[in-house]
Amino acid sequence: MTKKQIFTLEYPVRCSPSILYEFLSTPAGLQEWFADKVDERDNVFSFSWNGTTDKAEVTESEFEKFIRFHWMNAPPEEYFEFRIEKSEVTNQTILVIRDFAGKGEVKDQSQLWSYQVKDLFHRLGN
């Protein structure tokens, strides 16, 4: 299996970090934009799309700062992460997404994230 590489995407968001964090870290928030159905038990989130379910464990988090998930079926060093940062210049909230993809898959994976984030922004009223 080919080793995947990390990539980072940044999106300016017009909302408070606390509201954004709810959409990134709770089953109800994630179900609004990320998956059709989301459940959580003992720090393991079950994400369902079109009848298929994948599980991811929360490996690290800091309230209103970031949350990192590890897909249960992925190598231990791979994860996806939502990080909330503030631009020092504009004081704008920035959503930073880190994920892993194969060398030839980064563009497709980035487009998929952009599509998902567009749905998130719609829910946030952005």
Automatic annotation (TrEMBL):
It comes from the Bacteria. InterPro entries: START-like_dom_sf, START_2. Residues 1-125 form the START-like domain. SUPFAM superfamilies: Bet v1-like. This is START-like domain-containing protein. The lineage of its organism: Bacteria, Pseudomonadati, Bacteroidota, Chitinophagia, Chitinophagales.
